[in-house]
Amino acid sequence: MKAWGALWIVLGLLLWSEPGAASSLPLLMDSIIQALAELEQKVPVTEASITASAWILSAKNSSTHNSLHQRLLLRAPSHNTTEPDPHSLSPELQALISEVAQHDVQNGREYGVVLAPDGSTVAVKPLLFGLEAGLQAHSLANLPSDCLATPCDAGDTLANIGVTWPVLKDAFPNASSPDVGATLPNDKAKTPTTVDRLLAITLAGDLGLTFLHRTQTWSPPGLGTEGCWDQLTAPRVFTLLDPQASRLTMAFLNGALDGALLGNHLSQIPRPHPPLSHLLREYYGAGVNGDPVFRSNFRRQNGAALTSAPTLAQQVWEALVLLQKLEPEHLQLQNISQEQLAQVATLATKEFTEAFLGCPAIHPRCRWGAAPYRGHPTPLRLPLGFLYVHHTYVPAPPCTTFQSCAANMRSMQRFHQDVRSWDDIGYSFVVGSDGYVYQGRGWHWVGAHTRGYNSRGFGVAFVGNYTGSLPNEAALNTVRDALPSCAIRAGLLRPDYKLLGHRQLVVTHCPGNALFNLLRTWPHFTEVEN
After folding, report:
1. For 259-299, what is each residue's pLDDT tens digit?
2. What residues are paired with 246 via a beta bridge?
3. CA–CA separation, 63 and 66 (whole Å)
4. Which residues pair with 110 in a beta bridge?
5. Where along the chain do its domains lie?
6. Phi and psi for 499 in degrees, rounded to 5?
7. Residue 288 and residue 4: Cα distance in Å, rounded?
8. Backbone CA torsion sign across 378, 244, 343, 72
9. 191, 249, 353, 460: least buried by Cβ within 10 Å?
10. Going by C-beta distance under 8 Å and a sequence separation of 6 or more, which residues neighbour residue 150?
11. What is the pLDDT of residues 9-62, one digit of tens each?
């Protein structure tokens, strides 16, 4: 019961707070968890009768985005509600809540986001909306989809106003078709799930509006824009790598997906629910209920397994139709037909499922603390035709946490720059056993990984020594399937690329006997005649 009360108080305060106040707490997910834990200690059981929905629906100074979120949240049973008293909270907590109150992008900086222990940046607001929706999902599960757009007792559902989903021919002919299934290998004609409906609350409206505007610049091969924190130990300022980025950043997508996944979990477990601080600590730590796969490191894989692209497309369309109805003065939505909105929704969903859910998460250089490049990098002539696979050998143990992987990246860069006198870390990308890819020289600069062939292919290394053992399945899948297919989609790698082990071109044992023997069974592996 305290889970309900604590979350609803936080949501109420989020929507009443004026954003921008500076707190003394670092902008870490641990700070949000600390805030929830403090609230859970102060919220009496009777507070569980206070519903966030009533606060949200009557919140002051709601923006267009807020009004859409408010209507997408289901109505809970009516209660006499009161505005929460922020003075019952510590000053630090009040300031923190005010600071993360609204997600926004202004002048190249992103607000309302925090750094998670896995190294990802997460927008707080869509995360909390998903949690609340999951707590209400006992009402959500059996409602028709139009009730997600407007409450079923409001008398103006999409069905009642004569609006029906204009199914587009061949938009999603088969969930396992090459268009969708190429990057979602587990997508087998999925049926709608609670995650799809929760994404309608946390993501759909913003996703549709962003593609309607079409003013953002995408950073291939992923959807959304990444950024850099001013520091990692006590982060305060998050600057986007693309100063022209839209609101649909990587942090927003992470928060929206985390909210849907955790909301889905809450909707399926019996009451009483665990304290939300405990749930978040597990999810952003070792895994919920000890499951190492159900954690933030693998949000994309988990989201892909539970998301139906056709259903999500309809949810995005419904959100746009609802916004068109709620905000008739909205310039971007004027004089646009339902069919045109459906086309936007289909395109947005395709991009989200393929370029975000289906692609590996790549930590940018600033996230692992890279030193500056020495000299002037040489640009690659894209697309390239080769993918060269390495193991790092040293460090020998696989890295399974962001902290250890980032430390390994810094160590390898120091060795390459200071001992070998290279301009930078040699690899294009490095794959950890923590679910993440780490950017080395990246997609656009010539590396120093395969002597004599650096300009012809990307060098990708697994952290560890794989002479007698193999990387974990998630890391293997990244290099075998996800990374190359997303690079092909983005025009960085040729569709007929050749995959080679380092030893095939240079006298070395790299990438280790066990790993090389496995590589020989992979698609695109090519034998080289000596």
Report:
1. 999 999 998 988 888 888 999 999 999 999 999 999 999 99
2. none
3. 5
4. 105
5. 29-74+85-140+191-358, 363-520
6. -105, 130
7. 19
8. positive
9. 191
10. 71, 156, 157, 158, 322
11. 565 655 555 544 566 789 999 999 988 888 777 765 434 333 333 333 333 344
Q: Which amino acid is at 318?
A: E
User: What's phi and psi for 495, nearest 5 deg?
Assistant: -60, -30
> Does an H or E element contain 150, and which?
none
Q: Secondary structure of 86-134 in the HEC alphabet? A: HHHCCHHHHHHHHHCCCCEEECCEEECEEECCCCCEEEHHHHHHHHHHH
**How confident is the model at residue 175, as a pLDDT?**
46
Q: Would you say 460 and 390 are in contact if contact means Cβ atoms under 8 Å apart?
A: yes
Cβ count within 10 A of residue 381: 9
Residue 111, beta-bridge partner list: 104
294-342 residue pLDDT tens: 999 999 999 999 999 999 999 999 999 988 888 887 777 888 889 999 9
Q: Is 224 left (phi over 0), alpha (psi -120 to 50) or beta?
A: left
Which residues have C-beta within 8 Å of that of residue 528, sequence separation ≥ 6? 500, 504, 505
Place of tokens 């992470």: 254
Q: Which contiguous run of DSSP H or E holds residue 390?
A: strand 384-391
Q: Smallest Cα–Cα separation from 185: which of 269, 301, 328?
A: 301
Instruction: Name the region of 289 (left: φ>0; alpha: ψ -120 to 50; beta: rest).
Output: left
Instruction: Give 462's strand partners.
Output: 391, 431
Which residue is it, tokens 């996800």? 482
Burial (Cβ within 10 Å: 0-12, 13-18, ≥19) of residue 407: middle
CA distance 133 to 140: 8
Question: What is the arithmetic mean of pLDDT over 432-439?
Answer: 98
Query: So what CATH class is 363-520?
Result: alpha beta
* pLDDT at site 71: 56
- What is the amino acid identity at position 142? N
* Residue 505: C-alpha distances to residues 392, 422, 452, 499 (Å): 17, 20, 9, 12
Residue 18 CB coordination number (10 Å): 10
DSSP 77: P
Beta bridge partners of 388: 459, 500
Amino acid at 172: F
**Stated length of the chain:** 530
- C-alpha to C-alpha distance for 503 and 186, rounded to whole angstroms: 32
**Pair of tokens at residue 431:** 């794959």
